[in-house]
């Protein structure tokens, strides 16, 4: 009877390990057909993930096997009494110090990635100098505000700013930074392909930078409960070559400021706003 | 605490509880009882009832994820006739909010502290009753206003729709979630009531454990169960006021127009811009300052109980009693400085995130030490494969997964990806369902004979365990893969997004597993109610355990012990030569000489009932 139970407890860790080993082959791993992250930082994060996965997999297999083996021995124990052991000081030291060292190593090892990712001092200079757009989350859509062509993003909305909804275009080949804010409740800017996530906090403006390593269209979703339509905040980030990006901005300008006579009204407004700025 | 008796061993003065009369009529005996055992059983049945509610809510959530926008079977057409039986997205947010609320506040915390804390603390330390019996009664009866408040909040259209974490601004301003006006306020009141209930309980447990231990019961002779409950009580007493204060601040934000949690200039749902000066992040700090220790409140008692049960079922002393106590204390004290790991993506200072990360990594260490000690306890034991053992191993096996997936969460850069995805859902269900509930199932089976004087059925118990174990792993393990693929939590319809479209079959598999798991709980209820009346009678000590509660009659009468227990040993003295036993009760001074050879074969003592293997 006891041995049957040992097999029962052996079965599920095996199933777990097998399904994890199979996962990358049957599309159960990272999104977009197990694609590696679409940014260099994301690839480093994936690397950290796989490192932790290896450590935890070894511990998982080891502890589960030890439990089953101990149970197996316990089921076969023909002695009249169990071993009378109250503990072992040396063993306790060994299994406190080894995991302690491993955990401390993991903790220190990842600090670089985190610093590059989020500490403002380490942000790429190009990105910090010219934030590409302001991203405003609201129930239940994403709004994007780009500065007019050739201008810098201002803290306050300008009359010549370009606006779009649920579609963020960014140029390929350089790190970009957005200013993230929220109009109403809390949201979270989640780009699964780039391993980016940052909550949009009402009342704060949070700079977020990223750099895709290949052009493409990436899903942008909301990861913080923001009301009944939380699941509907469907948007895309489109990473495209610089020329296409400029082309896009031009089309956006035309759409927004076309006055019906073939002129673009934005230029006037633009100079005006610059004047007031000065 | 009126009578002070000199201690027979000179180790510890005995403080008697405020004498309360033996109950007279039905109402004082079973309803407004001050007897800790009756209160424990009241807690047990209330929490089991709530477990049905919480489980039903979970199944409704799973239904929507597996068969989105399809008519919910049985209750759908009746509840949402207007929507053709569909779960609306508003209702979906209410479902998962209430599932978490019910399971955390009305099932897990009260079943551990309320049921097992109440029942075991006086019995295991050798006291007549709790230090404050009336307070104890109140702590149970404060659960009911909480249940009423949660029920009312759920009944309102719009309901509590902000998740159990109740993050502002969604939870703070009524216009953010249409219809949630009164409902969210009731929800907050419910949390406050249940907070008072826990608070009264924890003060009582601390006082009882510190002051009312039997003579000879030093701190390091206390069973691990008592250590777990003691540390839990301390955690509760120090962390809970913060949540209660935060809750009040949110109530005043909602009702009195204060602005703790919202800044100026928010235009919510086309209402007028807000005028305020608050900060939503403040709530997260206040909330997680309680709710992270709360995770350990939901785990430490189980760790203690499993230590005692495992040692008894393996007939072996607990491996490393003191390291176990120290690691438990380490978990509790580190538990106070890791709350920030819930907030890596929240927008707080990223440098602070690093500090929280190191503390969080280090909290994995005592958990690992405990796991190794449990494994070492089994090692070389004479394992008895009964329902109690199986559930304990289930606890251990699943706790390992929950603990290991926690390391991914602790690592900040990795957590940024996994935060608020199904990976985290998998993680905390492995801890809260996998570890805590399996521990609770084991504990119910183990202490049932002491509660009701009858044994539970082994066959039913084992079937229940197998189905639950398979169902739980089938439901929660695939969640890791959903998280890997970036499926966010709390989505009514994740398939709207291109990169999640192909996840439907996996979700359907999980829902079927969840239904199996839910259905298996029927066996538990049958087992409990059948065994209460028709189970074989248990003697005083059916498990041949060593702790004090097994010296009392089953069920213990008013006042618990017929002989005042005096303690001579630590709690887990198994595998000794004591007459024809292999265990030494805490009340036995020394081992008996072995009996003559012819008596050796007869292992059954007069009190024993049959135990299936």
Automatic annotation (TrEMBL), chain A:
Assigned EC number: 7.1.1.9
Needed co-factor(s): Cu cation
Residue intervals of the Cytochrome oxidase subunit II transmembrane region profile domain: 22-121
Cytochrome oxidase subunit II copper A binding domain sequence ranges: 128-251
Domain of life of the native organism: Bacteria
Membrane topology: Multi-pass membrane protein
Cofactor note: Binds a copper A center.
InterPro entries (UniProt xref): CcO_II, CcO_II-like_C, Copper_CuA, Cupredoxin, Cyt_c_oxidase_su2, Cyt_c_oxidase_su2_TM_dom, Cyt_c_oxidase_su2_TM_sf
UniProt-listed Pfam families: COX2, COX2_TM
GO CC, alphabetical: plasma membrane
Residues spanning the membrane: 7-28, 48-72, 93-115
Record's function text: Subunits I and II form the functional core of the enzyme complex. Electrons originating in cytochrome c are transferred via heme a and Cu(A) to the binuclear center formed by heme a3 and Cu(B).
Family: Belongs to the cytochrome c oxidase subunit 2 family.
Protein name, as recorded: Cytochrome c oxidase subunit 2
Automatic annotation (TrEMBL), chain B:
Domain Cytochrome oxidase subunit I profile as annotated: residue spans: 26-568
Record bears the keyword Cell wall biogenesis/degradation: no
InterPro entries: Cyt_c_oxase-like_su1_dom (IPR023616), Cyt_c_oxase-like_su1_sf (IPR036927), Cyt_C_Oxase_1 (IPR000883), Cyt_c_Oxase_su1_BS (IPR023615)
Biased composition (Acidic residues): 599-613
Location of the region described as Disordered in the Swiss-Prot/TrEMBL record: 589-613
Keywords assigned: Electron transport, Heme, Iron, Membrane, Metal-binding, Oxidoreductase, Respiratory chain, Transmembrane, Transmembrane helix, Transport
GO terms (BP aspect): aerobic respiration; electron transport coupled proton transport; respiratory electron transport chain
GO cellular component: a single term: membrane
Cellular location(s): Membrane
Superkingdom: Bacteria
Family to which this protein belongs: Belongs to the heme-copper respiratory oxidase family.
Family annotation (PANTHER family): CYTOCHROME C OXIDASE SUBUNIT 1
Name listed for the protein in its UniProt record: Alternative cytochrome c oxidase subunit 1
Natural source organism: Gimesia alba
């Amino acid at each position: 009877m006891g041995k049957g139970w040992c097999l029962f407890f052996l079965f599920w860790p095996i199933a777990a390990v097998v399904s994890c080993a199979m996962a990358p082959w049957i599309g159960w791993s990272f999104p977009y057909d197990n694609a590696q992250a679409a940014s260099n930082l994301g690839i480093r994060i994936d690397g950290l993930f796989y490192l932790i996965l290896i450590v935890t997999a070894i511990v998982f297999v080891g502890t589960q096997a030890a439990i089953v083996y101990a149970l197996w021995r316990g089921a076969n124990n023909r002695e009249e009494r169990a071993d009378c052991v109250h503990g072992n000081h040396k063993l306790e030291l060994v299994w406190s110090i080894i995991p302690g060292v491993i955990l401390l190593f993991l903790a220190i090892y990842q600090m670089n990635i985190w610093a590059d990712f989020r500490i403002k001092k380490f942000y790429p200079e190009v990105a910090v100098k010219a934030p590409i757009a302001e991203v405003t989350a609201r129930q239940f859509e994403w709004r994007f505000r780009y500065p007019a062509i050739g201008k810098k993003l201002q803290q306050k909305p300008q009359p010549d700013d370009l606006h779009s909804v649920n579609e963020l275009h960014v140029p390929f080949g350089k790190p970009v930074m957005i200013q993230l804010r929220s109009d109403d409740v809390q949201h979270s800017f989640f780009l699964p392909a780039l391993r980016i996530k940052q909550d949009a906090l009402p009342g704060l403006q949070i700079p977020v930078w990223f750099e895709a390593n290949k052009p493409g269209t990436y899903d942008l979703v909301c990861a913080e409960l923001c009301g009944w339509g939380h699941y509907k905040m469907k948007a895309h980030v489109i990473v495209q070559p610089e020329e296409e990006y400029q082309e896009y901005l031009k089309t956006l300008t035309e759409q927004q400021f076309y006055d019906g006579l073939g002129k673009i009204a934005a230029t006037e407004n633009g100079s005006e706003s610059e004047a007031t700025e000065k | 605490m009126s009578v002070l008796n000199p201690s027979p061993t000179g180790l510890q003065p005995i403080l008697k509880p405020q004498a309360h009369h033996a109950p007279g009529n039905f109402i004082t005996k079973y309803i407004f009882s001050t007897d800790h055992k009756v209160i424990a059983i009241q807690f047990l049945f209330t929490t089991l009832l709530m477990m049905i509610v919480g489980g039903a809510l979970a199944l409704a959530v799973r239904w929507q994820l597996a068969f989105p926008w399809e008519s919910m079977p049985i209750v759908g057409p009746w509840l949402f006739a207007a929507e053709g039986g569909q779960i609306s997205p508003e209702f979906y947010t209410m479902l998962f909010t209430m599932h978490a609320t019910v399971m955390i506040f009305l099932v897990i915390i009260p079943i551990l502290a309320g049921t097992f804390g109440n029942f075991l603390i006086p019995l295991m330390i050798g006291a007549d009753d709790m230090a404050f019996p009336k307070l104890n009664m109140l702590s149970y009866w404060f659960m009911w206003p909480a249940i009423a408040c949660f029920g009312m909040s759920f009944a309102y259209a719009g309901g509590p729709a902000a998740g159990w974490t109740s993050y502002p601004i969604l939870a703070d301003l009524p216009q953010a979630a249409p219809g949630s006006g009164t409902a969210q306020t009731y929800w907050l009141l419910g949390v406050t009531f249940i907070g008072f209930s826990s608070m009264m309980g924890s003060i009582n447990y601390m006082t009882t454990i510190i002051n009312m231990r039997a003579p000879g019961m030093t701190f390091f002779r206390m069973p691990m169960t008592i250590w777990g409950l003691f540390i839990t009580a301390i955690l509760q007493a120090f962390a809970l006021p913060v949540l209660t204060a935060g809750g009040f601040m949110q109530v005043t934000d909602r009702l009195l127009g204060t602005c703790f949690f919202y800044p100026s200039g928010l235009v919510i749902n086309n209402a007028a811009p807000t005028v305020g000066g608050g900060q939503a992040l403040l709530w997260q700090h206040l909330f997680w300052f309680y709710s992270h220790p709360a995770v350990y409140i939901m785990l430490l008692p189980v760790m203690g109980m499993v230590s005692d049960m495992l040692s008894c079922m393996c007939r072996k002393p607990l491996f490393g009693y003191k390291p176990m106590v120290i690691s438990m204390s380490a978990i509790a004290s580190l538990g106070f400085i890791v709350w920030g790991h819930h907030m890596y993506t929240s927008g707080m200072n990223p440098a602070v995130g690093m500090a929280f990360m190191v503390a969080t990594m280090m909290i994995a260490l005592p958990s690992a030490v405990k796991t190794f000690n449990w494994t070492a306890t089994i090692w070389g034991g004479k394992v008895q494969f009964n329902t109690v053992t199986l559930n304990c191993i289930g606890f251990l096996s699943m706790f390992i997964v929950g603990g290991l997936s926690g390391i991914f969460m602790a690592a900040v850069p990795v957590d940024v990806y996994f935060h608020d995805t199904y990976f985290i859902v998998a993680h905390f269900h492995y801890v809260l369902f996998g570890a805590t509930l399996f521990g609770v199932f084991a504990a119910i089976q183990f202490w049932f004979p002491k509660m009701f004087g009858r044994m539970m059925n082994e066959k039913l118990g084992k079937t229940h365990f197998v189905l639950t174990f398979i169902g739980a792993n089938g439901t929660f393990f695939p969640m890791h893969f959903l998280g890997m693929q970036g499926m966010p939590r709390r989505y009514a319809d994740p398939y709207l997004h291109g990169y999640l479209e192909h996840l439907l079959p996996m979700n359907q598999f999980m829902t079927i597993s969840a239904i199996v798991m839910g259905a298996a709980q029927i066996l538990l209820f049958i087992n409990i109610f059948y065994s209460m009346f028709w189970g074989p009678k248990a003697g005083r000590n059916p498990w041949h355990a060593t702790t004090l509660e097994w010296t009392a009659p089953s069920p213990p009468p008013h006042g618990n012990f017929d002989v005042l227990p005096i303690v001579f040993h630590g709690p887990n003295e198994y595998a000794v030569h004591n007459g024809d036993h292999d265990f030494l009760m805490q009340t036995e001074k020394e081992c008996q000489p072995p009996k003559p050879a012819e008596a050796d074969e007869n292992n059954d003592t007069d009190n024993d009932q049959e135990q299936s293997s």
